[in-house]
From TrEMBL:
Gene Ontology biological-process entries: phenylacetate catabolic process
NCBIfam families, per the entry: PA_CoA_Oxy1 (TIGR02156)
Region ranges (Disordered): 326-352
Extent of Basic and acidic residues compositional bias: 331-341
Recorded superkingdom: Bacteria
Lineage of origin: Bacteria, Bacillati, Actinomycetota, Actinomycetes, Kitasatosporales
GO cellular component, one term: cytosol
Any one GO molecular function term: phenylacetyl-CoA 1,2-epoxidase activity
Coiled-coil zones: none
Protein name: Phenylacetate-CoA oxygenase subunit PaaA
Amino acid sequence: MATAHQPPVVAEDEAVAGAVDTAAAAVDTAALESAFDAAVAADERIEPRDWMPDAYRATLVRQIAQHAHSEIIGMQPEANWITRAPSLRRKAILMAKVQDEAGHGLYLYSAAETLGTSRDELLDKLHAGRQKYSSIFNYPTLTWADVGAIGWLVDGAAITNQVPLCRCSYGPYARAMVRICKEESFHQRQGYELLLALSRGTPEQHEMAQDAVNRWWWPSLMMFGPPDAESSHSEQSMTWKIKRHSNDELRQRFVDICVPQAESLGLTLPDPDLKWNEERGQHDFGAIDWSEFWSVLKGNGPCNEQRLTQRRRAHEEGAWVREAAAAYAAKHSDHDKDRRPATPGTHGEATA
Ligand SMILES: [Fe+2]
Ligand SMILES: [Fe+2]
């Protein structure tokens, strides 16, 4: 916790003793820091009770929060199609997928709680617009084919980003990612299969699939974040082994995976500059319009306002469920309290 590292308040007559303590604490911190660095260098996992630098904790909270928010905001564009899915089979698959995303949010908020930040606090920041979620979810889902394009490209990009996070240095985050990646893999396949069915369908269906891919391709490439040269957090995150690959490396990997898949789908990726580079053994691709990325990130995407408004409303409408769950837990804790040892007082009175 950040407060553990704040200097203690000392009375004047204790100042000398305090100075000695401070010096000792500095030596201790240096020792703790080198133990932490050695553990990271040796690919050992950092666990919640281990000492960690404040900046490492803050970086993880920021990244995990943004990831958790993306999972739950990401439910909206696709949930939009549940009532209009073209068959019972498609509806069941889509419902399962959207539910998975809620589960991913829960695993991730729980991982953030192990760092001392509550889910309530993170949700408050999301609702106040003080924390971000992935900009990709600020684009609209205009047709049924968008459900396929999201599964194939957006979940596909998420997997490319997240598989290396299974080896992240922070234990709870890494373990959450193992399960999330397995489920994302199902999401990617359902999107691919949906697009394949449309691509092989009527000319209108094929055109609908192509149109969805045209709209989702470039925003998917932006999901990997700004180019390495402009990415402010990348280098430190790589040193801490939170990140294992740079934004540009992961983006390139994703492009190379998608090109043959697009061919199998019978669909075209909307980039005239996309071609195999024999020398590099990778695909070259066209310039990304980063002005669009920054504009959407700043809140000017087609759906930013709609997504946050709907999220806040869902939170308010769910208040009675949270209250009922808390009342139920309190009732059971009253019922059991005679059988448990006395617990220390809460902080409630101090802030009242
Ligand atoms: Fe997810
Ligand atoms: Fe997903």
